[in-house]
Amino acid sequence: MPTSVQSCHSTSTSRKLSGKRKQVEALIGHTFSNPDLLSQALTHPSYAHVSRTESYERLEFLGDAVLDILVAELLAEHIDKLTQGLMTEIKAALVNADLLGYLCFDLRFAETDRSINTATREVQETYERSLADYLDFHSDVAGIHQDAYARYYQFRRAAKQELEHGARHPWAKLKQMGINKMFSDMVASVLGAIFLDSGQEICSCRPFARRLGLYQYANRVIDEQVDVVARDALTDSSHS
Fold first, then answer.
1. Does residue 11 have a pLDDT over 50?
2. Do 27 and 107 contact (CB within 8 A), yes or no?
3. Which residues form the RNase III domain (predicted)?
């Protein structure tokens, strides 16, 4: 029988997990009927044995296929003005691991620290949290997360400028950012989790793709004829 201390700890942990789940659901635009799927989607293989939760690997596999379908839907809407070769290049740009890793860090919301300044009585410090912050991983790979964050902040303005206004897809800039593949895997795993949770409804996955900014960029690539073909020696990352 659990002691009162154990019960309090269990309740506190449960509340913390519930709060985390709600934050992620608000960020990705999907409320889970089966929270275990979201837990799996947020569990890196290095952490699975610690949390006793299955890692995101199987969901990532499904999510890769879901992403391919979402991109195919977008291309189908414009098929009359796209050649087969160009569709191949656009798809390669949109499912590229470097782009998905960047979008994982770029999907974020502002959160306010509830500490109070005793002099002014004002709430202090608003900071941002990204989807990448919710990935559970072992301390052995914490350095990868820190390095990815540092590189994201170093290159994000230049990458954002090129993605929103550039005449060419920023293959080299995204490659230079060097965000580890585990974050593009995370994006795919969330797509896979949403797909399963919704009863395998592709339409339920679209809001997340939209929140990532993937749809918006895809439409700009097609409408403004962004050059996705030109690359250099730095680039070649297959998707998750």
1. no
2. yes
3. 21-199
Residue 13 confidence (pLDDT) above 50: no
Judged by phi (left if over 0) then psi (alpha if -120 to 50, else beta), residue 225 lies in: left
Tell which residue, 109, 225, 239, 88, has the closest CA to residue 174.
Answer: 239
- Answer positive or negative: Cα dihedral of 30, 31, 37, 42: positive
- The label of the residue with tokens 């997990």 reads 17
* pTM (two decimals): 0.84
Residue 109 pLDDT > 50 = yes
Token code pair at residue 200: 């395998």
CB 185 within 8 A of CB 240: yes
First to last CA, the chain: 45
Q: What pLDDT, on a 0 to 100 scale, did the predictor assign at position 231?
A: 83
Read out DSSP for 54-73? --SHHHHHHHHHHHHHHHHH
DSSP structure string for 110-134? EEE---B-TTT-PBP-EEEEEGGGG
**3-state secondary structure (DSSP) of residue 203:** helix
